[in-house]
Structures are given as C-alpha cells and as structure tokens.
Amino acid sequence: MSEADAPLSGTVRIAAIQTVSGPDVEANLAAAEGLIARAAADGARLVALPEYFPLMSTDEMAKVRARESEGSGPIQDFLSAAARRHRVWLVGGTLPLVAEADNKVRNSTLVFDDRGERRARYDKIHLFGFQRGAERYDESVTIEPGQTVSTFDSPVGRTGLSVCYDLRFPELFRAMGVVNLIILPAAFTYTTGRAHWEVLLRARAIENQCYVMAPAQGGEHPGGRVTWGHTMIVDPWGEVMNVLETGPGVVTADVDFERLASLRDSLPALRHRCLG
C-alpha cells in the first residue's frame, strides 16, 4: 500500500509556496529549492509551487523557447529530484510543455510523489484575457488550452488540479467530483486579485466542501509586472487558515480529516445536489 492509499485520519500538513519569479530559469529554480526545503522542514508532506514558477518574462515567447517535451527537460528533472530529495509530494505549479502548435505551449501542472515519480498532469483549460486601459493580457497568443479535468490520490486523499483563471469557472470543480483538496497555482494580476481572489477561493472551498490551497506569484517582477500574491489555504467552511500577502515565502496548514467529515455530515450539500 502506498502512502497515498493509506487510510486517512488525523491531520496532514500541506504547504503553498509564493514566489516572485523572473526571466532567469536557473535563478527561479534555486529560489524554489530553498522554499521547498523550508516547507519540508516544517513537516509538509504535500507542497505546491505557483503558476509560472520557473519563468516569468515580459517576452511572451520566452516560454515557447523554454518549453519541454513531456518527461524530459531541466524543469521536470528539478521537480522530480526535489520531491525525492525532500521526501514530499510536489505539485510543480505550471511549466511550459510542448503543444500541438509550434508557436505555443501547454501551461501544465505536473505532480511528483515523494519518490520523484510523476503521478498527475493537468493542462490549464481556461486562458486568461483582460484589458483595461493600458493593462492587457491574452494568454491564448502563446498558450494552447487543455481539455481534461485532472484528479489524483495524494497524502490527503482525492485531490483536484486547476490553474489561476480556472478559479472563475465553478463547473470545472464540480466535474472533479468529491475531493478533499483543490490545488490552484496562480499568477493573478494585482487588479483582478485585489477585487476577486479571496472571495472566489473561499467560494470554491465552501461549495465543494473541501480544502483549497492556492500558491501564487506575489510581488513586483523584473519588467514591472505586479502580481497580487496572497497565497492562502482555505478550509471547507470557507475560513482562511493562513495567508502570505506579498514576497517569497511558505504558507502551511493542516488538513484535518475529522473536521472535513464533520462539516460534510452536518451540512450534506454534496449529497443534496440535484443537477450535474
């Protein structure tokens, strides 16, 4: 029986990492390594990195040049080795993987277990687009959307994967079925994050009666982009358990299986669903 298949009781510590990534992949991986080590030293068994943790650049084609084939490449090698070295399950934020189109990438989350073996992949489905004045983003220019919902068994039980803009589409999370934890790596803009980040994360936790862990980019990046940060972990009642507003760091909390079961028993909303 693997660690992820063992009966669930007591608590399991999870950790969400916040970074302020730039255009230098090696520097970003070194920063991530130090934060993963901190999370592991604090007892975390499941650690998640933010969206774009290995690369954020004002040159949108940089991610295309850095893309890796599935199963091969320095970013994937780093994730596997870090998971094995620190004996944690590691959710690799997102990294650029080869897409069907030559000039695009899949914005992909990869999960490695504590032996460094890959356990899951999710390609971001919903691509962010926003324009207000001079502020403009269009991920569809360089990113090819995924099409498949992804869940996997982790040390906290059934776990669902999502990325950033996915947060605004509750039907994705319903399609996961019953999960104990949703992981949402993100790089929310300052504008949209200030308005909607916390309320949407709390809503997803409440309506799915599960923990939500959202590792984020948080701060001013080389080139001037500012991300909202506020990496947080939310419990199934919608309470924010821990948050880091800005700057690199680690946010930890304990998944409590007895609390999870009690909340679902007292308010059996998941069993009361009539549609979908």
From TrEMBL:
<keyword id="KW-0808">Transferase</keyword>
<feature type="domain" description="CN hydrolase">
    <location>
        <begin position="12"/>
        <end position="257"/>
    </location>
</feature>
<dbReference type="InterPro" id="IPR003010">
    <property type="entry name" value="C-N_Hydrolase"/>
</dbReference>
<dbReference type="InterPro" id="IPR045254">
    <property type="entry name" value="Nit1/2_C-N_Hydrolase"/>
</dbReference>
<dbReference type="GO" id="GO:0016746">
    <property type="term" value="F:acyltransferase activity"/>
</dbReference>
<keyword id="KW-0012">Acyltransferase</keyword>
<protein>
    <submittedName>
        <fullName>Acyltransferase</fullName>
    </submittedName>
</protein>
<keyword id="KW-0378">Hydrolase</keyword>
<dbReference type="Pfam" id="PF00795">
    <property type="entry name" value="CN_hydrolase"/>
</dbReference>
<dbReference type="GO" id="GO:0016811">
    <property type="term" value="F:hydrolase activity, acting on carbon-nitrogen (but not peptide) bonds, in linear amides"/>
</dbReference>
<dbReference type="InterPro" id="IPR036526">
    <property type="entry name" value="C-N_Hydrolase_sf"/>
</dbReference>
